[in-house]
Amino acid sequence: MTVERVISETKDQFPxxxxxxxxxxxxxxxxxxxxxxxxxxxxxxxxxQAITALKLLRGNKNKFDLVxxxxxxxxxxxxxxxxLVGLEMDLPVIMLSANGDTKLVMKGITHGACDYxxxxxxIEELQNIWQHVVRRKKFDQNDWYNSGSQDKPHMGSGExxxxxxxxxxxxxxxxxxxxxxxxxxxxxxNGHDNEDPSTQKKPRVVWSVELHRKFVAAVxxxxxxxxxxKKILELMNVEKLTRENVASHLQKFRLYLKRISxxxxxxxxxxxxxxxxxxxxxxxxxxxxxGDFHRxxxxxxLPNAGFRSFPPSGVLGRLNTPAGLGIHxxxxxxxxxxxHVQNSGNAGNDQSKLQSFVIxxxxxxxxxxxxxxxxxxxxxxxxxxxxxxxELPTADNTTVFPVSGSLIDARVAGCSNNPLLGxxxxxxxxxxxxxxxxxxxxxxxxxxxTMVFQNGNTLSDFNCIAPASNQLRDSKSNLQGQAxxxxxxxxxxxxxxxxxxNAPRKDxxxxxxxxxxxxxxxxxVNGAMVQLGQCLDQNNPVFHxxxxxxxxxxxxxxxxxxxKHNKGESSAMEPLVIDKEGYLIVQQRPQGSYIPDNIGPLGxxxxxxxxxxxxxxKPADGDFGCNAYSLRNCI
Amino acid sequence: MDVVQLQRxxxxxxxxxxxxxxxxxxxxxxxxxxxxNNPHFVVEVxxxxxxxxxxxxxxxxxALEQQSVDFRRVDAHVHxxxxxxxxxxxxxxxxxxxxxxxxxxxxxxxxxxxxxxxVKHEYSLVKTKLESMFQLEQQxxxxxxxxxx
Lengths: 635, 149
What we know:
The complex is a heterodimer.
Chain A: E1 19-23, H1 27-39, E2 43-47, H2 50-59, E3 66-70, H3 78-89, E4 93-97, H4 102-110, E5 115-118, H5 123-127, H6 130-145, H7 152-164, H8 169-186, H9 209-222, H10 229-236, H11 243-274, E6 281-282, H12 289-297, H13 312-319, H14 337-343, H15 347-358, H16 377-381, H17 384-391, E7 398-402, H18 405-412, E8 415-416, E9 438-442, E10 453-454, H19 469-479, E11 482-483, H20 498-505, H21 507-515, H22 524-539, H23 558-565, H24 601-616, H25 626-633
Parallel strand pairs in A: 1-2, 1-3, 3-4, 4-5
Antiparallel strand pairs in A: 6-10, 7-9, 8-11
Helix pairs in contact in A: 2-3, 7-8, 7-11, 9-10, 9-22, 10-11, 11-18, 11-21, 11-22, 11-23, 13-24, 13-25, 14-17, 14-24, 15-17, 15-24, 18-19, 20-23, 21-22, 21-23, 22-23, 22-25
Chain B: H1 3-19, H2 25-33, H3 41-65, H4 71-88, H5 91-106, H6 109-142
């Protein structure tokens, strides 16, 4: 084993000097890797033993920026190392292998790898690995500090191009990158030191219920196809609203509509699969919530920020609790959600959140924000959730997320790396039927979290909807490389209040679907939320983003939602993909602010929600723009 | 032979190795990684490969001689061999490894033994060829010339 360390004074010239730890038991490959990395001007340390690597990493947590590890090693399984690194050090880990089997790659993803390279590795691939470091840093920061810097309007035109690409993973990546750049500009308060500080801050436009209502009315009047920002602006006749604001809002709206239709589709599937319309509960499956989010953020990598953009509160609110379920978008890489729970200081908050979250049961599960939630909804419900969550980490990193069938579908749509997290030991499995619709993935780090809420009776039921396991499995593969996993359990879940949901029943699925969208960095959920919000807006603000969960009325939104947004049931859903902008919740930027990094899935959600509340203040308003109304409206 | 002739010989020889599939573009990458800071990189890596491969081949031979073959072990070695051969561009060796792994999955001892023979054969071929090539390079250097890319 050779250990070389060159003191790098080139931190400022990042990625030059990035400190990489390379682990591979094959000396030929190790030497090659070492040479390639040096050629990329990274600061390389190599070792042929995983154990040594861990020692090095533990010795000083700040010694390295990135780890590259072989999968097959004699002393320790590469995946195990991956998990440990993610858990303990929260560093991005790239897997390397001569074997490119889909299953293996998926395993890597679920364990939290931010990339998977095939041998022989080429220098071109290594030249870009620094993105994982930046992404992680950025999203982490965003989560914490970014309560207002990501303004929708800002993103507006800049993101226009990006937004359009949300649907595809590849594009998602790009989008995310763009977003990143965009965010960078606006995040000076975040203390980003490696990005240009934003030079100008435009006043954020808060899309209040009222405003959104006007917007929707204007769009309806013009016809969705003919609705152009300029005309909408004129019709709305609101002072200080710019065409750009409207343009970006419109974009989100469109995406939302797409998602709804997709969700509707999914719902249909789900309902069919489940066979019964009532009591579908949304399962909150947070795949490694944090981890996933993390991953989600990445474009093709597991997005980190996926969840961030959710306005957890919005969606969760619906759930009646700030579903801090793993909304934290920032899961540290590879962190097990559960562990996050433990680790995060917000645990306390989470707890409360979780609890509240659990309560709703009836309300609505619709909010599925794809937050990575630990499946322990049951527990949460009884307030044990929190505790439970805390316990989660103890589990072996496998979280089973009950995923409703539909979720899976949704999930699949455009999920990028959100592997479903299956919490095994902690067994979020609410239902006892472990694994049933849960994607059981060991260390689903990046799994998509699907939140399944169980409507209706108490959250304690968070039974996982047991979608056919196949669905999960399938979705799993879909997830692979998918940007966001949308775990929306839409539809059926919302059943909790039959009456309330009746009308929208149909829509409910959408809603939930939308809500549950996986959290990919792009938080499609936001988008969905928005959409839903819109619908609801018309009916009532059902959803209050900030913890007004209780005030949320029946999801009326469902109706308008379905009406409006059902665009064809095409299943091209990618809308659920949460793009960087956290579309789902119509939140433009990563909701990082409220997602404390290591809160366990539920905790995350809760805290996310909480945070959102705190950050946002009033429910209806929100810098989350979409969030605001999505939350409001979401039931 | 003078330097120019040697150089030409080297280039022709190298080209033939590519044509015959002994080497692939990964080997070219290796050559590109060699520079003044790292003047012996290719020889180093290839030597490591030889050592490593011989170890794996021995292990494979032992494993396949057992009464009850441990296919996981066999597979592990083949996998490693595949990885390292692909890393240096030893294409034919890599290809045999792929077939080898399939037989392992099927738990087909006969097939595995056959592949083992093939791998050994391909390995010794590529080893000989690379060693000849290195010798040629050394001759050029000794004669005061430089290695053509």
